[in-house]
Amino acid sequence: MNSGIHPFHGHYTWGGLAALACCAVVVPAFWALLNILSPWDDHREMFKQHNAGFAIVRCFQLLGLAFGLAPVIGMTGSTQGQHVLWAAADAVWVPMLLLASTPIISRVVRHAHGGLNSIRDNSVPVSLVYGMFYLGYGQIIGATLPGPGLGLVKTYLISVVFGLLGIVCLTLIYLAAMSIRAFKLEEQPSDDGLNADAQKLSLAQLVRDGNWPATIGAMVIIYSLYTVISSAVAGAFTNWGDAIVSFLVAVVIMLVLAAGTIWLVDRFVVVEVEEVQGDPDNPGVTTTKDLLNVRTVVRDGAVLPMAVIGAFVLALVTLVANVVM
Prior knowledge:
- The chain has helices at residues 13-37, 42-48, 52-74, 80-100, 102-113, 117-120, 124-143, 152-179, 203-208, 212-233, 240-269, 294-299, 303-324, and strands at 181-183, 201-202, 273-276, 287-290.
- The protein is mainly alpha-helical.
- The strands form two sheets. A two-stranded antiparallel sheet has the order 1-2. The protein has a two-stranded antiparallel sheet with strand order 3-4.
- α1 packs antiparallel against α3 (52-74), α3 (52-74) runs parallel beside α7 and α5 (102-113) packs antiparallel against α7 (124-143).
- The chain is globular, with a radius of gyration of 23 Å.
């Protein structure tokens, strides 16, 4: 997408500085606009109520904007004037798309984690997940900006189409992952005749209940999705068919590898085995019992093992994103 010439080298110096200045003006304006559009008052929530969850969301919203604006500074035009004009246009375009995506993020959090009241109630886990969506959407929006070489209409049409594709993929895959009931908080069998699956909880419910390993898992899922998706949409545009196929292939590869990594870690890495000697029914026989895997990590609230699992997944996703890019 970019010409390969750094914006601060040669005759692009002033264009790069102007682009940086445009972005610097947009960031505080974006914050002020968020405060105007939000039903909550920033000053009351952060400085009077000391609402850590709300402050986390605001910080992630600004970081998401920064992720979206970062490619704008690196773009180059044939002249300094063209560079400045494109930077100014993109500096308005990126926050517009990010603001337009806010209802989608709110609906996702409301559907998966019980609504935005959790943030008002100072729920840090839900706030972290909510904020991660802004990072993801910002990264995807920034990656869809192809630069000035394709013309005004085609450039922003590509941004809308692939930005929407990326956001839809991230959202749907996340909701699907959050809806899987795979975690049972108690080991004892049920005596009330309920179906075993009905007693299991999803990651979405666990995040809402403040389970930190589940929160780490949800954040890793969002990071994995937006990292690979943003890499998939950032490739050089040739034609619509090839671009869409390449995007979908990259998403499928990411899903397969991420699922495989979680299975491998769960099966071979984060497993502690307890040996039980002297089985009364079979004297001299040694039996084993798995004490630690992904499900028990989440069930027992074991943050450090879940962080290890997340690190494995993030390492693989980072490598995959570099291959896809």
